[in-house]
Amino acid sequence: MRTQVGIVGAGPAGLLLSHLLARRGIDSVVLEARSREYIERRVRAGVLEHPTVELLREVGLGERMDREGMPHEGVSLRFDSEEHRIDFADLTGRGIVVYGQQEVVKDLVAARLADGGDVRFEVSGVRLDGLTSDPVIHFDGADGTRGELRCDAVVGADGFHGVSRAAVPHTTYDRQYPFAWLGILAQAAPVREELVYANHPDGFALYSMRSPEVTRLYLQVPPDTDADDWSDARIWDELHRRLGTEINEGPLLEKGVTGMRSFVAEPMRHGRLFLAGDAAHIVPPTGAKGMNLAIADVRVLADALYRLVTAGDGSGVDAYSDTCLRRVWRAEHFSWWMTSMLHTDPAADAFDRRLQLAQLRQTVRSRAAATTLAENYVGLPHGSV
Ligand code: FAD
Ligand code: DHB
Q1: Does the pTM exceed 0.95?
Q2: How much is the ipTM here?
């Protein structure tokens, strides 16, 4: 079997790349380890930054997002028992849209299948070969038969735990944080219209939402936390105390612990293999940059691969890694900064705590500082970093 671009992983990165390539007449095959039901139900990120929203609209994926997504023009930061709003519309003229990652994935799968795209679910044993000459992806199909996919280029969009990164000789830059997030999805109408990021001496908390009926909430917990040790009553108590705002309670639809880490693998290319999204970089979730970065990568890659496979022009693919890493490191800094400013480090002393409050106060009181937060949060225009 032959295709122009072989893509490993049907997350936002792999699926969107396949869609962008198809719009330019380039064939691809997407190989995904999980089932379609699984990837469409996996609860993850929820915030689409402005350039992501614009891109999805531009490429025909904006219809349901515009109908069901929730546009927000600001967020609030809470610390020292007071709340302060950062007004994105006033500071940047732009905003964000709250729309779950699994909804983006559903829209992408539906679009690929409607266009006759080739997405293979439940494949296993993916192995990459010939990456500096004639790439081949070996895999086992859902029915157990061996498959061999020959391609002009391979894209590793298989997330942090995928197999592709190991095929790229790389240097890693890594930081782990001494806390994790316990996230819940609750069948409860959000009372707040926007997100609230709360810094509290007992730990960070975040108020978010998914729809007019569903609230999404997070609590800072120790890194080795077992979600089952947290009863519903304990979660709600802690949320009320740390967020200091009215919250509607409701039955939990989902509960899980997410580790916090910063990670970058450089470079993002080896021969004809290109890494995209979480396969190459991870940010801690504070600031919601993970999925947005994955989308920014494949926008650059779709252009570069188009030039490579249609005109033999390698200038785009040669620049791919450096171009993406500039935006990646901007997001790494922003996510690390938001994380450090808002969480309670168990090893922090009174001096650290006062520095943190000084940073928070400046962020909400200085228009220049608030604008820096706002422009990173709503997303720097693609190509501007
Ligand atoms: P992924 O979405 O991880 O997709 C990779 C795909 O590759 C998966 O479908 C996987 O099944 C498949 N795959 C893996 N290995 C193989 C293989 N060997 N063969 C074939 N297929 C394979 N970001 C935020 O901004 N806010 C959040 O609240 C947030 N919460 C998160 C919670 C969790 C538990 C996780 C893991 C991530 C979270 N993120 C969050 C990050 C965000 O979801 C990711 O940045 C985003 O999913 C990256 O997209 P991707 O397409 O690069 O990778
Ligand atoms: C959500 C996740 C984030 O990491 C964040 O910073 C804001 C919102 C969410 O899942 O809604």
Answers
A1: yes
A2: 0.96
